[in-house]
Amino acid sequence: MSHSQVVFVTGVSSGIGRVTAERFAQRGCKVFGSVRNASKAEAISGVELVEMDVRDDTSVRHAIDTIVAQAGHIDVLVNNAGGTLLGAVEETSVPEAQALFDTNVFGILRTTQAVLPHMRQQRSGRIINVSSVLGFLPAPYMGLYAASKHAVEGLSESLDHEVRPFGIRVVLVEPAYTRTSLDLNAPRAARLIDAYATDRNRASQAIARSVEKAPTPDGVAATIVDAAFNAWTMRHTPKGEASLLRKLRRFMPAGPVDASLRKNFGLG
Hints:
Layout: E1 6-9, H1 15-26, E2 30-35, E3 47-51, H2 57-71, E4 76-79, H3 94-104, H4 106-122, E5 125-130, H5 143-163, E6 168-173, H6 181-184, H7 197-212, H8 218-229, E7 235-236, H9 241-251, H10 254-264
Parallel strand pairs: 1-2, 1-4, 2-3, 4-5, 5-6, 6-7
């Protein structure tokens, strides 16, 4: 795949999305990046900002139509936009879970469905879905976030089988903790239950410590660019903790993995 491609990255206001868009631009790609409010977004060198809300069908279709009208096609779609939520499963209301899935899962579905007709017509394309190590691991007190990323993984693997005949491949990128505002500013479930307070606070503090010492988004961005240009493989885990966790989940017995996870979340 040539590096002079048209690339669309969702959620480029900050963090992984912003650095990823910069990386693609530095490689000579024509890059578009979605933001929810273009008038308030900070400019990114070499990246054209497109206003889009992944939760809104009309907004998504308009953004894709705008890009295709200007660039003629889309070669790479990076579904990066997402959110998180902290709280026990029992504490999380159905509307809160629905809102999270609307961004993390249905946002990918909307954007992918809007892009696929163009990719099928040109009979080529690469769709990169930013998942998480929580797409294959559990996460106490982030259960609905983990569920949304597990859903992204199932959707992505299934979709890849469907679109191969059209020259399109789907890829998962699975970061571990990354030093962004996403986890540090995670909203909490509105209805907190006292019985979970001690362990929830321990888990929250463990997450904050992990994010503070986590690497910057550069490694994840580099992995996403590699996933776009290199030979296809379904899963890409950035070097470091994400790669280690993938190996532990695959090769270690369930008991030690479970104990290690509870220790990392500060649980007894």
